[in-house]
Amino acid sequence: MRKKSERKTLMFLHLGNDYLINTKDIIGIFDIENTSTSRFTKDFLSAKTSGKKVVSVSYEMPKSFILCTDDKGGEVLYISQISVSTLRKRASTVTE
């Protein structure tokens, strides 16, 4: 029998609608309004969009994007209508 400290716990973050992601896969959570003014970020988002590695969580006005690793070792970008502060609160609640 495993000790409690040896058990692997999966924790998920709700991004909106029916989208849940494993917290271990999160690379970063970014505010779309503040970061999209940068040329580098615009190029990054364009590259992900053209590579079909973007998942739009909702048709509402986007407030954040979440960069994650995928099952194949690549990256996937989720665009969410939920604010960065709300996502961070949810993530900290999950890890406590």
Write the SSE topology.
Elements: E1 12-16, E2 19-22, E3 26-31, H1 32-35, H2 39-50, E4 54-56, E5 64-69, E6 75-80, H3 84-95
Parallel strand pairs: 4-6
Antiparallel strand pairs: 1-2, 3-5, 5-6
Q: Percent of residues in helical segments? A: 25-40%
> Low-confidence stretches at least 5 residues in length (pLDDT < 50)?
none
Rounded average pLDDT: 86
The succession of helices and strands, N to C, reads EEEHHEEEH
Outline of the structure:
The chain is α+β, with helices and mostly antiparallel strands. The protein has helices at 32-35, 39-50, 84-95; strands spanning 12-16, 19-22, 26-31, 54-56, 64-69, 75-80.
Question: What does it look like?
Answer:
The chain has 96 residues and is α+β, with helices and mostly antiparallel strands. It has one domain (11-84). Helices cover 29% and strands 31% of the residues. The protein is built from three helices and six strands, in the order βββααβββα. It has helices at 32-35, 39-50, 84-95, and strands at 12-16, 19-22, 26-31, 54-56, 64-69, 75-80. Strands 3-5-6-4 form a four-stranded mixed β-sheet, with helices on both faces. Strand 1 (12-16) and strand 2 (19-22) form a beta hairpin. The chain starts with 11 loop residues before the first strand and ends with a helix. 16% of the residues are buried. The mean pLDDT is 86.
